Amino acid sequence: MKSYFDCWAEVAGALFSQALAGEPELSESLPKPLGAGAFGWAATLKGDVEGRFSVLLDGSILETPLVGEGVDQKTGWKELMRETFDAAAGELLARTGKKCQVTDAEEIAAESQVSHAFQLRSADRAWTVLVRDQMRTIEAEAVASARPQPAAQTGDRDARAPSQPSAAALTPGLELLLDVELEASLRFGAREMPLGEILELGPGDVVELDRHVVDPVDLIVGDKIVARGEVVLVNGNFGLRVTEVAAPKRRLESVRCLF
């Protein structure tokens, strides 16, 4: 089912190409830190789907009169961004029947973390657009909270135990290794190349990887994949929001391969 973010991405892509000079194209990309002068707006929405939805723009975008010659660029972007927020709410209603409306939109200059990144590209320029999606479906939360919970019974310790054993229970004496520091790295993808192509690489060349931009990235420890997730920005640094993890036994294999 379409989410508010899905609707916003579709609406923003259409509106930006129609309303901005040069008909720039909006497409998802890997997140990049924004420099000084970044600006944007955070919308507060109420209804069947509610929460906070914020969009940050690269400050250098104000140097190009995308919203029209002789127009205050930031004011023009404010009006266009509010239009995308409202249009996404209307699109969500049409697609899913869920109602929501923008109750407030405040100007912001930064976000502690982001959930999605885009690139707005014209014929000769490109700008980064970052999105933080904090929307939630109220109906689903209400149903989950109203669902009766199984009553705890004394003596039923096995039933209440975690479905996966703790890492300390997998190997005797494992607690001795818990303070060992391991090097972790992110893998966005891979590609095999002939040595001749590698020697011909130069500044500005692009190496295409075997992974789509929306696919999760791998968290590698040793030579093992221990988790997957999506790249986010945290206080100006890259981070990984984990969406899936390997079983504890698989994660321990990454430790063993280092000793």
Can you give a write-up of this model?
This protein is of the alpha+beta class and 259 residues long. The chain folds into two domains: 4-142, CheC-like (Chemotaxis protein chec, 3-Layer(aba) Sandwich); 165-256, Surface presentation of antigens (SPOA) (Roll), CATH 2.30.330. The protein contains six helices and ten strands; from the N terminus they run αβββαβββααβαβββα. The strands form two sheets. A six-stranded antiparallel β-sheet has the order 1-5-6-3-2-4. The radius of gyration is 23 Å and the shape is globular. The two termini are 46 Å apart.
Distance between the termini: 46 Å
The SSE string, one letter per element, is HEEEHEEEHHEHEEEH
- Report the mean per-residue pLDDT as an integer: 82
* Largest sheet geometry: 6 strands, antiparallel
Beta-strand percent range:
25-35%
Q: Which residues sit in consecutive blocks of at least 5 with pLDDT less than 50?
A: 154-170
Helix coverage percent: 25-40%
Which geometry do the CA atoms define? globular
Integer tally of domains: 2
Query: Radius of gyration in whole Å, from Cα?
Result: 23 Å
For the record, the CATH class of the largest domain is Alpha Beta
Structural class: alpha+beta
Order of strands in the sheet with most strands: 1-5-6-3-2-4
